[in-house]
Amino acid sequence: MVGDGDDEIQARRQGESGHRTVPHTADIRVDAWGTSRERCLVEAALGMVECFADVTAVRPTAVERVQFAEAADDDLLVALLDEVVYRLEVHGQVPVDLEAVAMDDGLDVRLAVAALSEVEIVGSVPKAVAWHELHIGPGPYGWSCAVTVDV
């Protein structure tokens, strides 16, 4: 994760991907960037996980695949983050690594997951993704997105 705005811009110019979390009134704001739409989506999901869990020393116990039908970029961002919340709430799984690949008919996502019980909880678990002030799109140094996560 990059520290401040100048570092973030420099990282983007060098073609790096990343994310950062910013406190937001009773919520968390995730800013993410990547060289492609798919990498930006992955960074947003990793940023959301990082806001509540330390997964740095956790090894995945399973790999799950999810396919999303082609949709607007903001719909894909919300769908992916909603999938992370769903896996937490229903299956007790936390993604420790993700990979997204664009397909002709949508997006194929691989989630390397671990049990919630194996992860150190460091913050409030996300409950939902807000549409308010959601952004995703290409820019001069690749793709970026910003999303508010209700905790």
From TrEMBL:
Keyword Glycosyltransferase: no
Statement: the UniProt record of this protein carries the keyword tRNA processing: yes
Gene3D superfamilies in the record: Archease domain (3.55.10.10)
SUPFAM superfamilies: MTH1598-like
Superkingdom of source: Bacteria
Annotated stretches, region: Disordered: 1-23
Residue span, Archease domain: 20-151
InterPro entries linked to this entry: Archease_dom (IPR023572), Archease_dom_sf (IPR036820)
Compositionally biased intervals (Basic and acidic residues): 9-19
Alphabetized UniProt keyword annotations: Calcium, Metal-binding, tRNA processing
Family to which this protein belongs: Belongs to the archease family.
Full protein name: Archease
Lineage, opening ranks: Bacteria, Bacillati, Actinomycetota, Actinomycetes, Kitasatosporales
